[in-house]
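Weekend entry, working from home. Most of the wet-lab plans are on hold until the incubator is repaired, so I used the time to fold the two sequences that have been sitting in the queue since the last round of cloning. Logging both here for the record. First:
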Amino acid sequence: MKVLEVAVAAWFVAAPGTARAEGPLTLDRAIELAMSRNERASIADLDVSIAEANLALARTRFLPLVDSQGTVAFRPRNDPGTVAEASIALSQPIFDPSAFPLHSQAKHELAAGKAQRIDDRRRLAFDAASAFFTVLLADQVAQAAQRKLDTAKTNLDTTDAQFKAQLVSSNDVTRAQINLSTAARELAASQGNLQAAYIDLELLLNTRIDAGLAPPAGLLAAGRAPFVVTDDVIANGTSQRLDLVADKELARAAHESAREPKMRYLPSVQLGAEVAATTNAPLSGNTLDALVAISARWTLFDSGARSADAKARDARARILDLEASQLQRSIEAEIRAAALLLASRQQALTAAGTARDAARKGADEALILYRQGLAKAIELVDANDQRFNAEVNYASSEFDVARAYLSLRLAMGLDPLEGK
């Protein structure tokens, strides 16, 4: 019985919906979980499987078809009373004009599917990274709110003691109580936002997260490095965009599809062979018969269906060409915009760091002056509010830099992490 309990417990631990991350979750591990557990990754793989099946189907137009059949007839009033017949037929295309562009179309669609699969999984990794940083930011805000609440409690205790010693008025106590209530409200709101961010991340990773997250120090540091956009950078980034590769392959597939109606103007030639056997010999006395034939089919007039089909497919191919061209132009704009955004976020982070340090110093000085009776309660409350806002702004700026860095890597066709 105990063995059964252990087995059941092990099954629940291994089940995809109940698996939990052990220890603080790193960004690398979060991306791995998204790749292995999120349905989007499996869908991308299945799309490639469909394209592979379509290519195999297109290849069958070059291969022979073998068909066999047999019958047994019972005729009580005839002689013989039982007749058995069997035949086997082979059909081999010799020249099928439409098969060539359709096969080429399927090959390009498979190439597009493979490129799109990699890009879909890459974008899933970026979505996981974005959700990861959303949790980190929410956690930083919650920590700042907790520090504000702790400070507000200390200030209330200090103010209450000073009031009892008749060093401050009851109005100072009231302000301290209001500040404490405000801090408690902000902490509750920030904790709710943190829980919601965890839910979104768990949904994306398809796993429970119990031990918190480990900030990616390497990525945060890389995001602070200066970045200069050059023509070589844009060219390299464009060449790495697999969604552009997929679009171009789909356009090539559409052009191959547009060739198919024109190939119908040519005749198709087919080789056929058949062997038949019967137990009831005909007048010739042969119970085994065979034939080999070559047949040709040529549609001389189809009421304009071929030309209309070709025109529609040509237009579709041209549309895909234009969409690929538009994407290629937009990639340059994405890279330039992402680089500018990163530079502005880096400048904002520097300013936020200066403001945070000044706000912390100001809050500490205000507390000292307040305890010495040289500052009013309103000044202490304002100083604590400024420190809280400065800490939140710094955390937001820090992760804004990380997000901008990720956006730049996304635009350049790279993965979220170096060396991945």
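Second, folded right after the first finished:
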Amino acid sequence: MVLAYNTLRTTKDIDAIFEPKSIAFEIALEIANDSEIKLTDNWLNDAVKLFPFPGNQVDGVAKVLYENNGLTLRVASPKYLFAMKAWSGREVDEDDLRILWPLCEFNSASECLDYIEQACSLTIINPRIQYIVEEVAESFKFLES
């Protein structure tokens, strides 16, 4: 979020999809050990692979930040990041959701929930996800009556 959207980031890790996994983790550990910005050993993780990408496709409008020598760095769109963070239902992501909400330009909690349902290929929205989205929307006074 910091690199792509010039916002403060409230969570302390970076979720990524990468191969080969062992080499990426080895390099991430070296960076953490050499870093002046005091990264934790697990600052890079691949937990995002648990997200239910429809048809194994990632965000079609992801922004390419860097591409060279077989390495491509992309950041998901604000809406896709919002969907992933809401889907996870983690309390630690709620501040990030509040940061992302204005970037997503949702008009209501209902519109946001429809997007999450589509992005995550859900047939039923988990009540925890609905509660989080409604809380965030309410804080921006866009919650439908």
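Plan for Monday: verify the second prediction. Helices lie at 2-5, 21-34, 78-88, 94-104, 109-119, 127-139.
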